[in-house]
Amino acid sequence: MKKLLTRLLLSLVIGGGLLYLAIRSIEFEGTVAALKQASWWVLGPYYLLMTAQHLLRSWRWSHLLAPIAGPVPFSRILPISTVGFFAILALPLRMGEFVRPYLIADPPRLRMSQALGTLAVERVFDGLILALTAFVSIELARRRGIAPTWLLGTGYVALALFLIALIVLVMALWQRDRAVTLCRKLVGLFSKRLADRAASIAAGVVDGFRVLPNVGRLAMFVLTTCGYWALNAAAFWALSWGFGMGLTFGGSMAFTSLIGIGIMVPAGPGFIGNFELFADGALGMYADPSANKHRGAAFILASHAANAAWYIIAGAIAMFSAHVTFRKVWTISTSSSTDENQSAPANATGDRSPVVPQEGDVR
């Protein structure tokens, strides 16, 4: 619990700094007036599109899990995905990333380290699509002389990082044994006791990359990834109509991609600060500057609030699923370990038995 509080404090400092950079020039009276004048009926299509994108994103995970664990019922994947994405939103420094693999783990058929490997593939492909979209958008804006300097650097760095990550994934899959051996040797320099455990986790993570050589599954995964982000952009585009922003779908895609990159930065709960900063930078490239001052700020605040509300409501509903237990979510959320043999809180006798999904939890 102490480590969780420390991380929360650190995240609030980071998020607070980013939020200050985003709102320091906002005129609050004009922003409040723009919120009152907005056409809130657009929340209907926004939430329909958000639901569609979440269903598609949850379904695409099945294409990564199948080569490792065989077919996983969508009725199990959906609630676990929903709670997992809510945890990413709610917990500081993106600690919620470990909730999904922890809940989906079904030893020995599917270990947590293998599930973590599938998430690594997700993040790399998501990052590549977002970075490519952001890079093109920023370059086009730069030629028009309206791209902020800090966005230029963001575009180049994000694209470089995710290209490197893709190369690492492919190399680790191609030379699996060497990658595991290298991990064991590197960790062994500091702790021989932890070397074998680290190698075992590394092997499991690499196993999570098994979709990469399968052309059919990889193609389906890439298509669903593109569709998922297109639906995300469509949701923001629909919402923008309620604020008279006049965004094109291309502008909305740029808006979505920059926010997506921004919230990958570990910061405070709810993505407060990084969401606003990157959304403001995106609107600065596509929205009318006179509209951006009031309506744009109102649109950003409404986008963030509506997005958070969707995940909070969906996450609360998913917690009633038989495939999710509050104890497991709390255990991994407050722990500093990602070991697949994560220990549960001690029982009345002081025993700390490994938390292994029971038959009723995983079927």
Can you tell me the overall shape?
Answer: globular
Note the run of SSEs as H and E: HHHHHHHHHHHHHHH
How is the main sheet built?
Answer: none
Please identify the structural class as seen in this structure.
mainly alpha
How many helices in DSSP terms?
15
Stretches with pLDDT under 50, minimum 5 residues: 342-363
Mean pLDDT: 86
DSSP strand count: 0
Taking the alpha carbons of the first and last residues, their distance comes to 31 Å
* Estimated share of beta-strand residues: under 5%
Proportion of helical residues = over 70%
Rg over CA atoms, rounded to whole Å, is 21 Å
Q: What is the total number of structural domains?
A: 1
Q: Can you give a write-up of this model?
A:
It contains 15 helices and no strands. The chain has helices spanning 2-23, 28-37, 43-69, 74-90, 99-104, 112-143, 149-174, 176-188, 192-207, 215-241, 249-262, 274-286, 289-318, 326-334, 359-362. The chain is globular and about 60 Å long. Helix 6 (112-143) packs antiparallel against helix 7 (149-174). It starts with a helix and ends with a helix. The protein has one domain (2-337). By secondary structure, the protein is mainly α. 73% of the residues lie in helices and 0% in strands.
